[in-house]
Amino acid sequence: MGVGVLGTGHYIPSNVVTNKDLEKRVDTSDEWIRTRTGIEERRIAEDDMDTSDMAFHAAVHALEDANVKAEDIDLILVATVTPDTPFPSVSCMLQDRLGAVKAAAMDVSAACAGFMYGMITAKQFIETKVYKHVLVVGTEKLSKITDWSDRNTCVLFGDGAGAAVMGEVPEGKGILSFELGANGAGGEHLYQDVDSGHLQMNGREVFKFAVRQMPESSVKVIEEAGCKREDVDYLIPHQANIRIMEAAREKLGISEDRMATSIKRYGNNSSASIPMALSESVQNGKIKDNDLVVLVGFGAGLTWGAIALRW
Ligand code: ACO
Prior knowledge:
By secondary structure, the chain is an alpha/beta fold. About 35% of the residues lie in helices and about 25% in strands. It is built from ten helices and 13 strands. The protein has helices spanning about 20-25, 30-35, 50-65, 90-100, 115-125, 150-155, 205-225, 240-250, 265, 275-285; strands spanning about 1-10, 15-20, 40-45, 75-80, 105-110, 135-140, 160-170, 175-180, 190, 200, 235, 290-300, 305-310. Strands 1-7-6-4-5 form a five-stranded mixed sheet, with helices on both faces. A four-stranded mixed sheet has the order 8-13-12-11, sandwiched between helices. A two-stranded antiparallel ribbon has the order 2-3. α4 links the parallel β4 and β5. It is globular, with a radius of gyration of 18 Å. The relative contact order is 0.20. Bound molecules: acetyl coenzyme *A. The site of acetyl coenzyme *A has 23 residues, from α2, α6 and α7.
């Protein structure tokens, strides 16, 4: 038996904020944002749409897609750095709203690698047959911790949610290999300031870390899965900066059309980036049965995670 994804879903807020809109707020330009980051626009959730609301919409779609009922979910794992409140957790809010009456629930804090950490935690419970169905969600309302007067950060982020229902899949399918990692010594490069509540970032340091870590972790999981770089059908990197993503893609020798680039439309959605891109890629037929898919993320902590997955 393998452990894999039974269904996916995502929620994208309808409110579009373009680079031109941001030119009116801070000293920046559409050209700078496009060339330095690859971002063309992002979605910002309305005031009455919090992190748990987006998680709910993504989760409902994932449950439908997996054909699994909420009452059959055993565990809910929500990856987020922007919970509605520190407690109760977003996962508990979601458990109540979905009516997932028998599910245990907890949030996972690993920033942009959070969905990877959630998927691998789910894998352990399913593999050991403790649980049958685990709902993993990545959801972020980054707009509420963004300093909208700081051009270094406000152009980068957006809101959204993605979800996956995980369970048993046939042998040879599902998660083939993974790597999770952390380096707490790099925590100072990306954090939420306790006084202002705003996200603070040393962009250059995060950039250097990501350019090194993404290809390294990707190669590791591909090899551990017994595969070669050229076997990869689709790459879903964390959507933080197109230049970081391109560097990873080129090192892996993967063609442009085989990498998810939702960053153009949504910006960086932290823990929601990878599940949003995964769900969209499945929906639009980019990921097909039996494809070798690599998911790779990095983020605050510093944390990172990579998964090689047979779809
Ligand atoms: N518009 C115009 N100019 C800007 C803007 C902007 N929005 N932002 C910064 N600049 C300026 C800077 O002030 C600097 O000016 P200076 O030379 O006069 O000081 C100049 O542009 C160049 O700045 P750099 O920092 O060298 O620009 P760089 O090419 O490194 O790009 C960026 C900056 C996009 C932030 C990049 O470093 C990056 O993407 N880093 C990684 C960030 C990341 O991945 N973060 C997410 C982690 S995931 C998570 O956990 C949330």
